[in-house]
Amino acid sequence: MFKNYTLYVVIVLLIFSSSIKAQWVKCNGFSNEDVRSLITLGNNIYGGSIDKGVFSSSDNGNSWTRTSLNNLTVWAFVSIGNTLYAGTDGSGVFQSTNNGISWTQTSLNNKPVLSLTTIGENIFAGTVSGVYFSTNSGTSWTLTSLGNKQILALTTLGNNLYAGVAHEGIYMSINMGTNWVKTSFPGDAWSFAKIDNNLFAGGFYGGVFLTTNSGTSWSQIILDGTTVYSMAASGNNVFAGTYQSGIYLSQNKGVNWNEINQGLPTGITVKAIQVKDGFVFAGTEQGIWRRLMSEITGVEKSSSEVPSKYSLQQNYPNPFNPTTTIKYELEKQSFVRMNITNTLGEIVFNAIDEMQPAGVHEYNFNAGHLSSGIYFYQIVAGNYRELKKMVLLR
Fold first, then answer.
1. What are 206-237's pLDDT values in tens digits?
2. Which domains does the chain have, with CATH numbers?
3. Which of 101, 120, 139, 284 is the most buried (most CB within 10 A)?
4. Alpha-carbon distances of 186 from 164, 181, 258, rounded to whole Å
5. Rounded Cα distance, 275 and 330, in Å
6. Model's pTM, two decimal places?
7. How far, in Å, CA of 206 to CA of 46, rounded?
């Protein structure tokens, strides 16, 4: 009897440890603060909260320190060089040049600032009364022609500037805010993300929209009826943080999406997302949560051994249906690209597009969206380039 109970406990522990391995984990030091903004600058990640100001972490979220900007609501961040800017509720824009140790209030000091972005050295601030810009690090600010409107979100694509305007959709400027044109985007835009020439926008009860022609036309691609508060992009990965539905992820620039809420409380609202050093951070009304990028993108570092050369191995199994593993080795930290192509040389899937550390890596490829046939996978890392064939049989 004792042995049976012992075996039962061991099995339960194994099941429990397996279930908690691949999931979101709550960061210590943030308690249950309502986190509205996240940004990475240098080795630090910063979180802006409701009424509690800015917190920072220099160890990828293991511990957090409250900065001297500690009694305001912080809606947005942006950085230029080593200078960090924070948009606050009612007190305008603050700046810090020493990793948040001290903060200085800029001359935009009496307005709620809901969003921030930059073009070169120019800073744009979205307020409840229009878009302001500064060309001198916040010393002075000028209202653009998009005034008397509540600006929910700001972003750029190339030199184009985009503003999500409450109840009026998205406006675009091609001349640094001098003139604005209303795009065809329907409803309210609360968040943006971009990959190459693809611009994604999160709507208020409208889900995720995509434009591939600089905003001339928009198409809704997922989550109709859901508010998307936050978005982020890394490589080919697009994250969408929602109201009471957690986080969704696309690994192929918005074509396919999956819910990735393992470990998150049911019904949680995600108001900010940030990717840093192989982790994904989620800012919620219940603090900050963290998860390994490799758990949700399929790329795993399978060995700490540093190879002596670059190499790409044959996928296994091969033929496969519909999943297979591709193993490769990096002799040093490299920016890695891996594409899947058909027999015509057309790219059918962008698998990897990110900086990765030296080591032995595995990519778990799911070809569920492809038809049977011969495909090729190619890796480019530094000066190394190699192509191999694989067969999908259904």
1. 999 999 999 999 999 999 999 999 999 988 88
2. 24-293 (2.130.10.10), 299-392 (2.60.40.1930)
3. 284
4. 11, 14, 24
5. 22
6. 0.77
7. 29
